[in-house]
Amino acid sequence: MRHVALLLGIIFPNVIVADQLTINVPSAVANTIREYRAECTDEGGALELDGDEISKLWTDEGEEAYIIHAAFTCGDLGHLWCGAMGCPTDLVINNKFYGTNRILQKHPNRISKASDGTVTYWMPDGLKLMVER
């Protein structure tokens, strides 16, 4: 049996570790995920990340930005935070959290941050939205 497992590990190395993926994210992103995890646990579920909830892009000014699309699965409870209109979506730019107070169906595909702290982001269909600071 050990030889079969070793052979499978050589042929399909990603299968063995596919359920364990670790990425480095800024603390503001990790803290937000912890909040969702705690809420899910309080509801009796276990938070699952499918891989499409967090995305990274660069702002027009060259700053690192993360998009947190709360499409997390909470065990058998499903997508606890999403509804028919989409899921809550927030931004983290240079490790600073920006709550958009928006329910979106897709991730923004462009972000710009003004010197006064105002964040503008665009959806794939061209819709322009803002977060004022």
Structure, described:
This protein is α+β, with helices and mostly antiparallel strands and 133 residues long. Helix content is 23%, strand content 32%. The protein is built from three helices and nine strands; from the N terminus they run αααβββββββββ. The strands form three sheets. Strands 2-3-5-6 form a four-stranded antiparallel β-sheet. A three-stranded antiparallel β-sheet has the order 7-8-9, with no helix packed on it. The longest helix has 16 residues. The protein is globular. The protein starts with a helix and ends with a strand.
Overall geometry comes to: globular
In terms of quaternary structure, the protein is single chain
Q: Tell me the distance between the termini.
A: 60 Å
SS strand fraction: 25-35%
Give the biggest sheet. Answer: 4 strands, antiparallel
Structural class: alpha+beta
Question: What labels would you give this structure?
Answer:
133 residues; alpha+beta; three-stranded antiparallel sheet; 3 helices; 9 strands; globular
Write a short abstract of this structure.
The chain is α+β, with helices and mostly antiparallel strands.
Topology:
Elements: H1 2-11, H2 13-17, H3 27-42, E1 47-48, E2 54-58, E3 64-69, E4 73-74, E5 87-93, E6 96-104, E7 110-113, E8 119-122, E9 128-131
Antiparallel strand pairs: 1-4, 2-3, 3-5, 5-6, 7-8, 8-9
